[in-house]
Design a protein that fits this description.
With 786 residues, the chain is an alpha/beta fold. The chain contains 20 helices and 18 strands.
């Protein structure tokens, strides 16, 4: 008995150390329409491999059917299902899936991976969302052709629709023709349609197969392996025909140039994952007929390519695009590219305010010329004819002839007149004053053009931010709807997001309006047609314009308060040298000083004028006696001096008034100088803060984006409330706007600082820039800090 027990223990030990039996790796047969692996097929296989990684792996048996011989295809599928070594058969593509559908009986598990329309293909669906057919499962396509065409119809009321697809086999052509015929009839009863096959292997950019009377195109990919690369020339050719297009595939094709689509971007991923999950359930022993036939539902991804609308010159109504996400919205009004410096230089040539100021200079120069001319001799010539009645004609010299033609010449020369001398001096000074005024308008034009340019850049950024924010709201609405469908939240939360979506659409509309106004404003500054199209190059702290502060030697002066104050002292000296407004008021003071002197001289100095005249009888008609030659040209010369003896005190009042005006101008000069000094210091402080603000705004934005991602993930998992997510989203949008404006504000603030000094660094020659830096260096070396 003891021996038997010991033998049993030894045998048990041997069994313990023997290797365990390894179960056979499951085999999945992939049956496709060709030997080439399609994108969808690879996605399905990758998903299955991922799910089976922890279960011992999976082996694939890849087979291809002859699309022109459906009977052989059905036979191959039957053989694979009957093969006991094959655990599951997957029919890839529309054609193979259709072969599986027609079999009706399935000796082994099978999955039809692509079903275009189950009702059209006669497939049942139980209340539980399964096929109800033993050993058979199908995957209803996540693409909804009818919904696509209904949406397309709201964008463009097509009359003849071309359904464009790669070349297919005859076995599928009639099926698809019948299917699309029914859908088009339901969507637009009066519209015609054509199936247009495109040979992707020979596409060269032209697609003459599309009939001439086609006015719209529906792009149908059918999951071709190389299609993502080869569909681009087809889309380009459609756009060249100016045909509106709608892509079944979704945003991928819209970004390639198709006009619009509503298919969710994850359709293929979702379908592939559903196939893989169902295959896993089959391998674990579940009947294929009890597995779901539909993938998870996602909300629409309605996208419109604005650049394509511009290319085909067609624009749907705003109501049709209300729920759409607009791609390339910034390219809606693109034309010739403009740089900031180019805009400023163009404004200096074309701006109407500046041209008006230049015209004022010409006017004042003419006025100064008139004042100078008043000091020169004034010569007049005149001629006249006198005809009298015959009763007054006599033999005397008073009326020797009935008709007399005479000529006269006059000369006047101001020998001395302080009024004329003062006027000439004052008008000359005012000419210089108006020239300084033109310089001030020129400086203001630079800032105005820069403001208009940067306002437009910010409006473009804001529109992009609001468009992105609307897309985030749509995604959050999708999360809320999925949570509501699972019972995790009530319908009020969905309504909250729908309200947020509407509010964000309003903000996007406002951003679009602001963009158009900013674009028109820039055109107005440049005296261009208000609707002129153009595109702008973005700018930043060291991009787009050569600011004074971009010089490293200058930028280091902002590193601390002491250096910044010494720099501001230097800039104040520069402002005193350069500011045209200060020079202009000084010219006014010169002019007023001359006016005071004129008022003083008017009290004591006379006006002296030399005058002369000469008359000549040119002809006499019907004369009783002609005028003697020594009497027909009388002349005279006179020198006159005049003094204002008594004017009722008006001259003294004029003098007093001129002195008060001079005092007022001196006060204005002091006030202006103080204001300029304040502007220099405050603009430098503001510019320095702007320089530091760029990095701070970027840090805030990075934190806000990170916070939003965390809160959004928490909201999807139920850890955060809808209020938390809305707050995080609003904080992200605010940070994006601040970050976008920070770099633009930097440029504006430093342009304002340079304007406060009366010069712009980027407009000067290299020699002038070098002279500026030499003056700065000398100031820092010779001027101690107080």
């Amino acid at each position: 008995m003891k021996f038997i027990v010991n033998l049993f223990v030894v045998m048990a030990g041997l069994l313990f150390f023997l290797p365990a039996a390894v179960p056979a790796m499951p085999k999945v047969a992939i049956v496709a329409e060709s030997t080439e692996t399609t994108v969808y097929q690879k996605m399905v296989m990758d998903e299955i491999i991922t799910l089976m990684a922890g279960r011992g792996g999976v082996a694939f048996v890849e087979k291809a059917v002859d699309p022109n011989d459906p009977d052989k295809g059905v036979a191959l599928l039957s053989m694979l299902m009957a093969d006991k070594s094959i655990d599951c058969v997957i029919g890839m593509g529309v054609l193979v899936s259709d072969m599986l559908i027609r079999m009706r009986q399935y000796p082994g598990p099978a999955v039809a991976a692509v079903v275009v329309d189950r009702k059209l293909q006669g497939l049942p669906m139980t209340f539980e969302g399964t096929s109800g057919i033993i050993n058979f499962n199908y995957i209803q396509s996540g693409f909804d052709v009818k919904k696509d065409l209904e949406t397309f119809q709201t964008l463009y009321a097509f009359r003849h629709l071309a359904v464009v697809l790669p070349v297919i086999k005859p076995a599928m052509f009639h099926t698809l023709y019948s299917y699309f015929g029914r859908v088009v009839q339901q969507v637009s009863p009066n519209a015609a349609f054509s199936l247009v096959e495109i040979d992707l292997e020979s596409v060269t950019g032209g697609i003459p197969e599309i009939p001439e009377d086609v006015d719209a195109v529906y792009l149908l990919p059918l999951f071709s392996g190389k299609e993502p690369l080869q569909i681009i020339p087809v889309i380009q050719a459609v756009n060249q025909r100016k045909l509106p297009s709608f892509a079944m595939m979704g945003e991928t094709h819209v970004r390639m140039g198709a006009m619009a689509s509503i298919a969710p971007g994850r359709n293929l991923d979702i379908m592939a994952r559903r196939v893989a999950i169902n295959v896993l359930d089959i391998l674990e022993g579940r009947d294929a007929g009890t597995l779901p036939v539909s993938a998870a539902a996602y909300t629409d991804n309605f996208v419109i390519n604005i650049e394509t609308l511009q290319a085909i010159d067609y624009y749907p109504g705003w109501n049709a695009m209300t729920d759409a996400r607009l791609l390339n919205l910034d390219k809606l009004h693109q034309g010739m590219s403009l740089q900031l410096k180019e805009v400023i230089l163009e404004a200096l040539e074309r701006n109407l305010d500046l041209l008006t100021a230049r015209t004022d200079v010409r006017i004042q120069e003419a006025e100064a010329g008139k004042a100078k001319g008043a000091l020169l001799p004034q010569v007049t010539l005149s001629a006249g004819m006198t005809h009298i009645d015959e009763n007054r004609v006599n033999n005397t010299l008073n009326y020797p002839a009935r008709t007399t033609l005479t000529g006269s010449a006059g000369l006047s020369q101001a020998v001395f007149s302080d009024d004329l001398l003062a006027n000439h001096a004052i008008q000359t000074i005012l000419t210089e004053s108006v020239q300084f005024q033109e310089k001030a308008v020129l400086l203001d034009t630079v800032v105005t053009a820069a403001y208009a340019y940067i306002d437009l850049l910010f409006a473009m950024s804001n529109q992009a931010i609001q468009n992105s924010n609307l897309e985030s709201t749509r995604k959050n609405l999708e999360i809320a709807r999925n949570k509501s469908a699972l019972g995790a939240v009530d319908a009020s939360e969905v309504s909250r997001w729908e309200s947020e979506k509407a509010a964000n659409q309003i903000r996007l509309n406002d951003a679009y309006r602001d963009l158009q106004l900013a674009r028109m404003r820039l055109n107005q500054v440049l005296d261009r047609p208000i609707t002129r199209r153009f595109s702008l190059s973005d700018i930043g702290p060291v991009k787009g314009i050569e600011l004074m502060i971009t010089d490293p030697d200058v930028y280091r002066l902002l590193e601390n308060i002491k250096q910044a104050r010494r720099f501001s002292d230097f800039l104040i000296d520069e402002a005193d040298r350069n500011m045209p407004e200060l020079k202009q008021i000084r010219e006014h003071i010169r002019s007023q000083n001359r006016q005071v002197l004129n008022r003083k001289r008017a009290l004591i100095l006379p006006d002296i004028v030399l005058q002369g005249s000469l008359d000549k009888i040119l002809d006499e008609h019907d004369a009783r006696q002609t005028t003697p030659s020594d009497l027909d040209h009388p002349w005279s010369v006179s020198l006159m001096a005049s003094w204002p003896v008594f004017t009722g005190g008006a001259l003294k009042k004029d003098l007093a008034q001129s002195r008060y005006q001079l005092q007022r101008l001196l006060l204005e000069e002091r006030n202006l100088k103080n204001q300029i000094h304040l502007n220099v210091r405050s603009s430098l402080e503001t510019a320095a803060v702007s320089a530091r603000g760029i990095s701070l705004a970027d840090k805030r934005l990075a934190a806000a984006r990170k916070s939003y991602d965390i809160v959004q993930a928490g909201y999807a998992q139920g850890r955060n409330s809808v209020t938390d997510l809305i707050d995080a989203q609003n904080a992200r949008v605010s940070s994006e706007r601040d970050a976008a404006s920070a770099k633009y504000q930097f440029v504006i603030d430093f342009l304002e600082m340079e304007r406060a000094t009366g010069r712009f660094y980027f407009l000067e020659s290299p020699q002038e820039k070098q002279a500026f830096l030499h003056r700065l260096k000398a100031h820092l070396e010779t001027t101690p800090y107080h």
